[in-house]
Design a protein that fits this description.
The protein contains six helices and six strands; from the N terminus they run βααβαβααβαββ. The protein is an alpha/beta fold. It has one domain (about 5-185): 3-Layer(aba) Sandwich (Rossmann fold). α2 packs across α3.
Length: about 190
């Protein structure tokens, strides 16, 4: 069976709900986020996986556990973008100081660049490239958007074109020998 990658964004946290950049802060799922994670299990339970990797952040590991997948390996490269001085702040708050700021186009003081996040995504792609069948990756919004862009051979910044909601499932795979996005941002409301 050809490699197929299921990208799972973690369930809702208070910070994701409020639009705050959440990188290294280990913010837990809200009650709604835990319910979302359990519903994700309904989208995944018929699937079998040769490899399950999760970001070490609690919101991702808890989403993985609540969705019913066990035996996941922690993968440090799946952690979210490091937002440095912008951790815990919303884009609107940052734009009060830096007009037109986005994580995709502007510096992140004391944080990562899109290129650096792209390198981590490339390491994940290289690792899962050795797997066969289905792989599940539990991670975060910006990281998964970068990973999908890199999967398709695009620059990391092209992830800006891929909106990704909490508790969503996306699928990467192949059309013949071309890496493609098979499904994007599906939610089980």
């Amino acid at each position: 069976m050809a490699l197929q990658i299921m990208l799972v964004r973690h369930g809702e946290t208070e910070w994701s709900r409020d639009g705050k950049h959440t990188g290294d802060s280990d913010v837990p799922l809200t009650p709604h986020g835990r319910a979302q994670a359990r519903r994700l299990g309904g989208m995944l339970d018929a699937e079998s996986f040769s490899l399950v990797l999760t970001s070490p952040r609690r919101r991702a590991t808890e989403t993985c556990r609540l969705s019913g997948l066990s035996g996941a390996e922690l993968c440090e490269d799946l952690r979210e973008w490091e937002y440095g001085a912008y951790e815990g702040r919303t884009t609107a708050q940052i734009r009060e100081e830096v007009e037109g700021w986005t994580v995709w186009t502007h510096p992140v003081p004391q944080g990562e660049t899109a290129t650096e996040v792209g390198r981590r995504a490339d390491k994940v792609i290289e690792r899962i490239g050795k797997a066969e069948g289905r792989v599940a990756l539990f991670s975060h919004g910006h990281l998964l958007r970068v990973l999908a862009a890199r999967w398709c051979g695009l620059e990391a910044t092209q992830g800006r074109l891929l909106k990704l909601d909490t508790a969503s499932l996306s699928v990467l795979g192949y059309e013949r020998e071309t890496s493609v996005i098979e499904m994007w941002n599906r939610r089980n409301a």
